[in-house]
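Contributing new complexes? Match this layout with iron/sulfur cluster.
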Amino acid sequence: MPTPAAPPRRYLVRTFGCQMNVHDSERLAGLFEAEGMVAAHGVEDADVVIFNTCCIRENADNRLYGNLGQLRALKQQRPGLQIAVGGCLAQKDRDKVMERAPWVDAVFGTHNVGHAATLLERARREGPVVEILEAAANAADEFPSALPVRRELPFAAWVTVQVGCDNKCAFCIVPSVRGREMSRPFSEVVAEVAQLAARGTVEVTLLGQNVNSYGRDLALKARASDDWRAHAYMTGEQWAAAGAPRARPLFADLLRAVAAVEGIERVRFTSPHPKDLRPETIEAMATEKAVCPHLHFPLQSGSDRVLSLMRRGYTAQRYLERLAAARAAVPDLAVTTDIIVGFPGEDEADFERTLEVAAEAEYDSAYTFIYSPRPGTEAAARTQEFVPPEVVADRFERLRLVVERSALRRHQARVGLTEEVLVEGPAKKGGPGVFSGRTRQNKLVHLDGGPLRAGMVVEAVVERAAPHFLKARLGRVISPPRHRELIPVMAN
Ligand code: 5AD
Ligand code: SF4
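Output block (do not edit by hand):
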């Protein structure tokens, strides 16, 4: 009698942190699917649980070790269960993860996401393994977009264009866990976007820690090579041609090339650094129809003294000038930001400047964070100047009110307007027949008047505004979904 085939093993990826991590998790999922595994519903039916960790703001340590503690009992009941920890916190903590949770099977860092499945396989044979690299072993590892990807939304995709960061913001741990800034070859990005478009993806978000300085390193590297093909691959053919300007491609060139890919209707990017926002980028936003009118423009603080302590490289006035230039050039631009409250040494006058600048900037929304010391960063050493928690809490609330006021005003100004909405699926709240989607400005919209399908592009008339979303009535359908369902997308 033939033996029945073993059921496929099941994986579960738990993600913490930013879009870069969300996208790395899509790669982890793609990797496990390429190994013949299928997604688990929860820890109960998982054979492999992977934590993709973050250490940028929260005290992720406690959360991770709490989660791992819960899994310990489960592992005692099911010794076949494998647990892996990857991402920024693993990169930072290295051997400490295994010391604190010796029941973990594999630990990997930010430069070897693509090794996760192999490491778990090795752990099955040899016992627990830790592999943290200082930098990727080769270019394919550095840009794990070259790995299979199991994308969460087939009609909208993240595309990594740059990893690492060469800035040294005093509060930020990213440079130490993500390494030096490195741009992905121009031709590779454009090829991935073309491939996504061919599968029906209509929206792409270009990701980079410091996305607007994309290309700086490519131009230098390409110049060092006298092989035209290698140069063209790195910078794109147009910038490898004789007589092309030497400092290309710019991020603006990439924006234009991606926007020109047939089938791509929406191009977004995150996050640019205000000091590096070039007029060419604004120009590309203004002239390329597919580039969405939304700029995420992290302010961090409105006080010049604090900005300088933070090593941000701009003043509040310079920031506001660049913002005004962007608004003047790009019609109907939505602007969002990141602000940190309670940076060491921030006093009441500094904070009032932040309130003033935030009010003047008239944000559509803002991510506001309470400063949290990250080990090894410059600001974390200034313990004498830490702001007392009750002062921080009070400032945080005052800032929230200022931001919500402008967000509501900006949203109210849209009541009565017709928006183009990319439908994401049924709304989490609001009952049957209510769908959610995003406008070109990246605003969350709840729509009445379904049934609708994810991936559809529709027109909707805004009826009501709240600080964090719009409510709208369905108008005409502009286009049906184009993506094919449930096909794991293979990049390259
Ligand atoms: N504490 C608080 N917020 C931080 N951010 C980065 N590091 C810290 C920190 N140590 C915020 C910044 C950044 C966003 C991604 O996270 O505002 O823009
Ligand atoms: Fe961190 Fe500053 Fe680099 Fe952004 S630009 S990742 S805040 S160091």
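Reviewers usually confirm one structural detail per submission. For this one: The first helix runs from residue 19 to 34.
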